[in-house]
Amino acid sequence: MSNPDNLSSDDAVQLRTLRKRSRALNRLARHVQDFALMMTQLHGHQLDAWISAAEKDSLTALASFARNLRRDLDADRNGLTLPHSSGPVEGHVNRVKMLKRQMFGRAKLDLLRRRTLRYSRSRDLRQSQATRGPAPSDSVLKTWPSYVQ
Predict the structure, then answer these.
(1) Which of 12, 32, 10, 8 shows the shortest CA–CA distance to 20?
(2) N- to C-terminal Cα distance for the chain?
């Protein structure tokens, strides 16, 4: 869903027309906008009120979503309040899964381990070069264990 402020004029007119035609769509759009504001502005303290309002509405899919949020309310509230993100971890998991898919049927775990560690080592070298000066010379790298190279 796009921010309504960023819509082209034609899309904004079409959205207003659709919202005028359907009360249910208009109510749903308001709930979604309120939830989007909670997410983007980290207003997790408003989650309980939003869930209560969504559960009272006659939109069954929205009420079901709200009920499922209650299952782990503390984690959901923290996710909507705290600035921390699991994005870097998810990025590493995604990269390992991509490598695994690329190698499906081609090799065993030893090659996956080497490719994963090689990527990490080269990334670490680039970071160390950027923050601490030049990377280690090739003679130093040759002393690393064979499974890393």
Answers:
(1) 12
(2) 45
What is the C-alpha separation between 57 and 50, in angstroms, rounded? 11
Provide DSSP, 123-140: HHHHHHHHHHSSPPPHHH
DSSP state of 71: T
The pLDDT tens digits of the residues spanning 97-149 come to: 888 787 777 767 777 777 777 665 555 555 555 555 555 455 544 544 444 44
Please tell me the predicted confidence (pLDDT) of residue 55. 93
CA 117 to chain centre: 24
d(C-alpha 49, C-alpha 34), whole Å: 11
Model-wide pTM > 0.90: no
